């Protein structure tokens, strides 16, 4: 998964992600990865239309998507 996140950040490839929040809420999001650390990812979320921080351990599934809308911010 880390290689996919890194490639997305470098090439600005949008990803579709299933994410579980710390409160147990599961959501489906389309994101553009901006920064990655060993535990967190900072990304522009097209679903929420804002930048968000995500815990990498909370990602349930992730894959490239063909949605090509670029972040506006």
UniProtKB/TrEMBL annotation:
Name assigned to this protein: WYL domain-containing protein
Organism encoding this protein: Perspicuibacillus lycopersici
């Amino acid at each position: 998964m880390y290689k996919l996140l890194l490639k997305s950040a470098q090439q600005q490839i949008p990803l579709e992600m299933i994410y579980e929040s710390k409160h147990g809420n599961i959501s489906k999001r389309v994101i553009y990865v901006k920064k990655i650390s060993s535990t967190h990812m900072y990304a522009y979320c097209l679903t929420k239309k804002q930048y968000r921080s995500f815990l990498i351990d909370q990602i349930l599934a992730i894959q490239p998507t063909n949605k090509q809308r670029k972040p506006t911010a």
